[in-house]
Amino acid sequence: MKVSYIGLGSMGGDQAKLIASSEHELTVFDVFVEVRERFRDIARVADSIEAAVEDADLIQICVRDADQVRDVLFGEGKVATAAKPGALVVVHSTIDVDTVQSLSRQLEQHDLLFADAPVTRTSQDGDGRFVLTMFGGDVDAFEKARPILETFSTDVLHVGPCGSAMALKIANNMMTWAQLVVGDLVYQLADSYQISFDHLKTVTRANGNLTPITEAFLGGSRANRGALTPEHHEFVVSQAGIGEKDLTLAIDACQSSAIDTRLIEIARELLRPAMLGDQS
Predict the structure, then answer these.
(1) String of DSSP letters for 98-127
(2) CB of 261 within 8 A of CB of 247?
(3) Where residue 125 sits, what CATH number does that domain have?
(4) How high is the pLDDT of residue 223?
């Protein structure tokens, strides 16, 4: 299968490398020349989105947000006008459900198929696969994309129609970021009574309250807050921004479903201070 991958950041780049090691024919593009040049010896490197997608059967997009997704799809010389009729466009970026469904309708007018396929990191298996991929789209689209998704996924889950996978990803991320905020508050409470972190971990591990992500956060970022190197500080600031974006998506999704958003609004407010402390 001829595959095009657009967006070669930390997540997309690793996925594309695993596709490149398979039997499929891969073309990649990223707006940063130095990033796409890393693929020069393992895939075909395009100098534009138009060149990347012109003959692709499957087009994968992994960029930062909804605005970037729209630009990739509908900017001048971009996917909607450059891709061949019948190609399947799969978006891995975490964006809002309404945008996913709107993009699907718009691409249908260009005779292009569309699906949402957000991912979440898992434990890496022996073949290097490192994410679980959620898929929102019809069965035919799922079966077309599955061989490519399986090159980098420990599991591929067909959630339901277009938009359903994105809703699941938003719900998952809402839980992750809210748990980090609660974990920080728990850490503060225990510390205020001179309870050691080891004792806190012993109890919360035993009863299942402590997730691996929260433990890593409390043992790393929380313990080092106020003493971050400039490089680590920049990384944490970026992660906090992603968390705030994810929680905003969760708030919007909850409001659309008449679900109380007060707890998530507080989590969004407290996330950056929890991650950065007095370096915020």
Answers:
(1) HHHHHHHHHHHTTT-EEEE--EEE----TT
(2) no
(3) 3.40.50.720
(4) 60
pLDDT for res 198:
94
Beta-sheet pairing, 25-29 with 2-6: parallel
Residue 277 confidence (pLDDT): 80
Query: Which 3 state secondary structure label does DSSP give 38?
Result: coil
149 and 174 co-located in one domain: no
3-state secondary structure 201-257: HHHHHHCCCCCHHHHHHHHHHHHHCCCCCHHHHHHHHHHHHHHHHHHHHHHHHHHHC
Domain's final residue, options 161, 191, 206 = 161
Name residues of the chain where pLDDT drops below 70. Answer: 221-227, 278-280
Instruction: Report CA-CA distances (Å) from 256 to 98, 165, 249, 269.
Output: 10, 16, 11, 21
Q: How open is the CA angle 131-228-210, to the nearest 5 degrees?
A: 45
Distance (Å, whole) CA 107 – CA 32? 26
pLDDT number for residue 279: 55
Q: Is the pTM value of this prediction over 0.70?
A: yes
Owning domain of residue 22: 2-161
Same domain, 242 and 202: yes
Q: CA 163 to CA 59: how far, in whole Å?
A: 18
CB atoms under 10 Å from CB of 177, counted, come to 26
pLDDT of residue 229: 81
Q: Do 193 and 143 fall within a single domain?
A: no
The verdict on 180 and 224 lying in the same domain is: yes
